[in-house]
Amino acid sequence: MDISKEEFRKLGYQLIDQIAEFNADIQNYPVTTGESSVELIKVIGQESLPENGVPLDGLISKTMELLTQHSLFNGHPKFMGFITSSPAPIGILADMVAATINPNVSAHILSPIATEIEKQTIHWLSEFIGLPKPYSGLLVSGGNMANFTAFLAARTAKGSPDLKSEGLSNSGSSMISYCSVTTHTWIEKASSLFGHGTKSIRWIPTDDSNQMDLKCLEETIQADLRAGNQPFFVVGTAGDVSTGVIDNLHGLATLCKKHDIWFHVDGAYGAPAAVLPELKEVFYGLNEADSIALDPHKWLYIPLEAGCILVKDANHLTATFSSHPEYYNFGENQEGLAQNYYEYGLQNSRGFRALKVWMALQQVGKIGYQKLISRDIELSRLLFQLSTAHEELEAMTQNLSICTFRYIPVHFAGKANDYERYLNTLNRLLLDSLQLGGDVFLSNAIVNQKYCLRACIVNFRTSENDIHEILEIILRTH
Ligand SMILES: *Cc1c(COP(=O)(O)O)cnc(C)c1O
Fold it and tell me: What is the mean pLDDT of residues 277-283?
């Protein structure tokens, strides 16, 4: 199992050479090969579990070749699907360091410096998004886990005091959450997994600007109060997954204070944009949130996985997640500072996700990130302008770094009332062929019942030239 120093050095250098070549050449690969599962099974073969080991050098170089020949590359400058960023190269190196030291960031005693680095990362992320005082929190696998962590902390904070021992039977079944119809599916997973049921979600419609309708929210809360239910959790979205809209956070915070409801902001995608002074207004109210979800593996360009949950008052985390079995002699907090991360979230053994975030924040600094994030926004505006100007494209929405638009042919011979259905089908088929084609990767959004192409740019490799080329690709693919 161990590898001698000489061999490790030789194989490691070879691998680093291959990675460096790949990163420098990534724009010349197809974004994806579009191969089917059947084709890929043939590529890796169906041999059974190896009985005996194989030489290392072949193993490493073959694996690298396999992955570079048959992957989808979200690091490609023309990858703009869903919300997955290009991986920052510093993150590749940071993960190697993290695996070398292999701290188990569950308890301070097992991960002394790693725990302090995670704490500092949480402070820095709070500062990054402009919170006047650092929140507490921890790194998790992604947005879903970050939001789940907040959901659970909120229900401990707002639920009956014996909820931990009695479960939901006392009052939990009537604890109601509120979110706009644009909210990501995690809220359904949370409500069903944690025993509230999906019927406990109130999906509030959006207004003309695609923000949660505050008047409707207030009315719905009032109706629940009259019915004897307990409103406990409101989700504001800071950058919705389809079109990037940010809810009226201050308005939501005010309503939550009035009714003693936990105010959670899902900023998995958009929250890092709060680092831009010009977006201060748009994020107004963010610092009133009880909790904020933010994914460093989205707009901070950290390699998967890195999600983060920030919570205003750490006591709500420990009240929810802490337990003290006799086999943990982790002791009391020294000077009230030592922190055992297993008491903050769902995981017990935990990897050192914070390191890659901590190192990337140092590599480019706040100003470097401001430049990168505003450039992504500018590129998405450029895409919007170009599709507005083109006679065969219709620009639909542009918020943060997401642009939605669709293809409209100049000539349509059918009946006028079939036109929208025709356009929806046409754009769906267009997206399918673009996604398999390998020249560009977009995803879709439904805007006002219209099927649109959607580009979300969280990509430090994308250039203006790529935006022009993407439109050419779309127009020749249709
Ligand atoms: C991406 C995203 C999620 C889910 O995050 P994962 O990291 O994929 O689990 C949740 N909410 C919003 C707003 C997102 O953008």
Answer: 97
